[in-house]
Amino acid sequence: MMHVLPYLVAAWVFLVGCYGLATSRNLIHAVGCLAVCQSATYVLLLAVGYRDGGTAPVFSDLEPGSRPVVDPVVQALALTDVVVGATVTALLLALVVQVAKRHGTVDPDELSELRG
């Protein structure tokens, strides 16, 4: 059961973010919920790269195959995911500021000019 727990946590965090995104009445809240959805990928990537009893991937003091090591590629992907998530959140918040300046509201239902 312990091996499944991080995957269940990632799925739960993702679903909570999606629920918040679907029920949001504020664009800033929607951006925050999207960031919560993004954070589920951090948990998922760390769960994929985890090894029981694994050490840091520094091989100067180890003989090859003597101990398990965690996957450094997954750690690098998680760091990249954090940077991309922060960048996307900043861009979306900048767009929300521009929408608020032009339309005077951050409620998606009140943005009548954007309806198709």
TrEMBL record:
It comes from the Bacteria. The keyword Ligase does not apply. It is a multi-pass membrane protein. It is found in: Cell membrane. GO terms for cellular component: plasma membrane. The chain crosses the membrane at residues 6-22, 27-50, 73-97. Keywords: Cell membrane, Membrane, Transmembrane, Transmembrane helix. InterPro entries: CPA3_antiporter_subunitC, NUOK/Mnh_C1-like. The keyword Transmembrane applies. It holds the Pfam family Oxidored_q2. Belongs to the CPA3 antiporters (TC 2.A.63) subunit C family. This is Dehydrogenase.
